[in-house]
Amino acid sequence: MTDPLRGLAPLASVRRGEQAESWHLGAVAVATPEGRLVARAGDPALATYLRSAAKPFQLLPLLLAGGEAVYELTDADLAIMAASHSGGPEHVASSAALLTKGGFTVEDLQCGAHVPLGLPEARELAARGETPTPLHNNCSGKHAGMLLACRLRGWPTTTYLDSDHPLQRAIRAHLAAFCRVEEGEIGLGIDGCSVPTFHLSLAAAARGYAGLADPVAAGHPPAVAVAAARVAAAMGAAPGMVAGRERFTTRLMEVTRGRVVGKEGAEGFYGVAVRGPVALGVALKIVDGGERARDGIVIDVLRTLGALSGQECAELADLHSPELRNHRGLLIGQVVPEVELEEI
Q: Which end of the chain, N or C, is surrounded by fewer C-beta atoms within 10 Å?
């Protein structure tokens, strides 16, 4: 049996004073739109679940069915469908409006309810004495978009989460094409919001994000290329809808003005589409599932690749090496990214 932890690389150290106390291990893969792996840290064959980083691809069936024109969708509408949003009033209102466009109500959402993902939003909801609804679920926009796709295509709406539903089969087909794998190679699990989630190598995921960065260079059919480019453009144009206040994903896209499109997945996964001038796809996994080092690792990888300018790195510097403080508030260390990319 293959050891799933074979070929891990140290991606960050946790320092107490000047000494490393703990380490976050994982792997990184970087690919071009043509599908060539060009850099790595650790083993790019490491396989994991994409979790919410699959959302940009899960939006494709709606766009390819003409949903943008039929439902008069804006950048913000498309961005919330690809979001792991913070559950703020703007996110809740946007998801609710999408449901209305298709004649749905909040009862049609099968994502479940949870406390808003954003800490400020969670505090504000609690201060108002309100109970979270499925609209506060960080995936409510994605589920609303799936319902709209089903309505438009005449597919059943009560079973839209079933893995053999026409919508889910269409999503898997698109993901396989972008990641350059056979559909049968994609492992399936159930995500936190109850949709199917996809198990792939980091190399495959990086190819998928590279295709999102430049779908024409990736060789996708014209209609698919237009739809994928539209998803990336909308995310970059409305970054506050993709995540929210004080969130790294929003900051990354704001600072780069949408040239770099990022998407987090739970358990330490992150995907990046660098849209130019040199298009690249990046996929990384922190194997302990922790996220305290994730933002800095992403910044380090993009800086090494030349995908972030010096000014952009400076604007994200507060997220690069987060401070560690004890119970008295004393500064006692920091989390330091230490990614060493190897060219292939």
A: N
The amino acid sitting at 250 is: T
With contact defined as beta carbons under 8 Å apart, do 190 and 197 qualify? yes
Whole-number Å distance between alpha carbons of 300 and 196? 31
The model carries a pTM of 0.96
Which conformational region is residue 308 in: left (phi greater than 0), alpha (psi within -120 to 50 degrees), or beta? Answer: beta
Say if residues 287 and 47 touch (Cβ distance below 8 Å). no
Percent of the chain exceeding pLDDT 70 equals 99
Q: Which amino acid is at 297?
A: I
Query: How far apart, in whole angstroms, are the C-alpha atoms of residue 335 and residue 320?
Result: 8
CA distance linking residue 31 with residue 218, whole number of Å = 11
**Please, which residues bridge with residue 139 across strands?**
none
- Residue tagged 């949003």 (tokens): 85
DSSP for 251-307, written as a single string: HHHHHTTTSEEEEEETTTEEEEEE-SSS-EEEEEEETT---TTHHHHHHHHHHHTT-
Which tokens hold the place of 173?
């087909």
Q: In what order do the strands lie in the sheet with 47-49?
A: 47-49, 196-201, 187-190
Q: Which tokens hold the place of 101?
A: 């466009």
Cβ neighbours of residue 214 under 8 Å, at least 6 residues apart? 33, 275, 276, 279
Angstrom distances, CA of residue 273 to CA of 68, 170, 211, 233, 321: 22, 22, 8, 11, 23
Residue range 141-186, pLDDT digits in tens:
999 999 999 999 999 999 999 999 999 999 999 999 999 999 999 9
Q: What was the pLDDT predicted at 5? A: 72
Residue in this structure with the two tokens 């996708």, named with its chain if needed: 220
Radius of gyration of the chain (CA): 19
Q: What is the mean pLDDT of the chain?
A: 97
Strand, helix or coil for residue 40: strand
- The answer to whether 30 and 278 have CB atoms below 8 angstroms apart is no
Q: How far apart are CA 248 and CA 115, in angstroms?
A: 19
